Amino acid sequence: MSIFSLFRKQSSAPMARERLQVLLAHERASVGQSDLVAILREEILAVIAKHVEIDDEKVSVKMERGEHVTTLEVDIEIPVTVTVRAA
Amino acid sequence: MAKVVVVTSGKGGVGKTTSSAALGAALAQRGEKTVVVDFDVGLRNLDLVMGAERRVVYDIVNVIQGDAKLPQALIRDKRLDTLFLLPASQTRDKDSLTAEGVEQVMNDLKRHFDWIICDSPAGIERGATLAMRHADVAVVVTNPEVSSVRDSDRIIGLLDSKTEKAELGERMEKHLLLTRYDAVRAERGDMLKVDDVLEILSIPLLGIVPESMDVLKASNIGAPVTLADSRSAPALAYLDAARRLAGETVPMTIPGEKRGLLGKIFGRRAA
Fold first, then answer.
1. Cβ contact B2:B135 at 8 Å
2. In sequence order, which residues have a C-beta less than 8 Å from that of residue B245 and are 6 or more positions away?
3. Separation in Å, CA of B191 to nearest CA in chain A
4. CA–CA gap between residue B80 and residue B169 (Å, rounded)
5. Binned average pLDDT, 10 residues per bin, chain B of 271 residues
6. How does DSSP assign B192-235, residue by residue?
7. Residue B88 phi, psi (nearest 5)
């Protein structure tokens, strides 16, 4: 222990604590959300598939967490020669 | 009624196997019939830490596949006749553990033991999820270090969703076992403190095991920490933790915090 370390103010543990708190707040929320996205994808697909034929591969559901709002982006490709079953 | 305890952490190298052996031995030292089950198929080490590596004939995979009966695979400890080990297979891959097979083994063990301690492998794959699957109580082993705390948080999430208890809508009892704790470094602000980790993970504390040479010494000689030297600091911490696990109220002590002046000087120099 040198004399200089007496003047050293910055200890590392508080930084570890803060980083963990921020990270885990995010991770706890997003673990739940990855399930939510999967559920939404499945249910949205089911609803649309009732009316139009769609390719499972050509569907993308994304959720983006912003600072104030979260946006849900649903991108579904519908072929031109689609057969509309029921209007 | 048998109690099934899973010792888990997510992260490797934090002390799951050491803690499983020490808690298992501590419970057996109380006269309760205890079995420690190694779930780390392919990388077994509990046999080595408990000093039974030369006595392994059959393992849990042999029992699941019907090549051996459960009593043939159980190894009784040479020092404590209430302590048993069910080793993992070293040669098979981890897929040889099946959900049905593990369930059958656990049901059989429950009929013969007071305590079943499941030593989980690291990670969140099959071995780890099967080890926690049938647990009544979870001991989450955590080091006061960022990556270990993060992985413990993830494991707590799995304990609350992927276990039998969780699926039945019951509450899984979870306890934090803080290992490799250095009170001097924590006091200096260079290590997360007990309260920091407790606040972040918000599960009750089972015990604080100090960083100690005695842990390595115990594994060198192949004895659970509590049997190698029952008066060493980590042994006392594990003995207290086992008493809490059994439902006793034991005051919590932070090992190494009550030092004399000399202890303080030497403690700091050594750290």
1. no
2. B5, B23, B27, B137, B139, B175, B206
3. 5
4. 38
5. 95 97 98 97 95 95 95 97 96 85 96 98 94 97 97 95 93 96 94 96 96 96 96 96 96 75 52 38
6. --HHHHHHHH---EEEEEEP-HHHHHHHHHT--HHHH-TTSHHH
7. -90, 165
Sign of the dihedral defined by the CA atoms of residues B202, B205, B211, B213, in that order:
negative
Contact between A20 and B157 using a beta-carbon 8 Å cutoff:
no
Nearest-CA distance from B162 to chain A in Å?
13
Name the nearest CA neighbour of B143 among B169, B188, B90, B179.
B179
A73/B111 Cα distance (integer angstroms): 53
Considering only CB atoms, which chain A residues are within 8 Å of B147?
A: none
Please state the pTM of the whole predicted model. 0.81
The pLDDT value recorded for residue A3 is: 61
Would the CB atoms of A13 and B193 count as touching at under 8 Å? yes
CA distance A45 to A47: 5
Tracing tokens 């089972």 back to the chain, one arrives at B206
pLDDT, tens digit, 9 for 90 and up, residues A32-79: 666 677 777 888 888 888 888 887 778 777 777 666 677 788 888 877
Nearest one of B109, B151, B112, B133 to B13, comparing CA atoms: B151
Chain pair A-B, CB pairs under 8 angstroms: 39
Using the Cβ of B149 and the Cβ atoms of chain A, whether some distance falls under 8 Å is answered with yes
| Closest by Cα among A67, A6, A61 to A38 | A61
Rg (CA), chain A: 24
Please state, in angstroms and as integers, the Cα–Cα distance from residue B71 to each residue in A68, B39, B76, B210, following that order. 60, 17, 10, 36
Is the ipTM value over 0.85, yes or no?
Answer: no
User: Among partner residues A13, A27, A31, which is closest to B192 by beta-carbon distance?
Assistant: A13
Q: In what order do the strands lie in the sheet with B173-181?
A: B75-76, B83-86, B34-38, B115-119, B3-8, B137-142, B173-181, B205-210
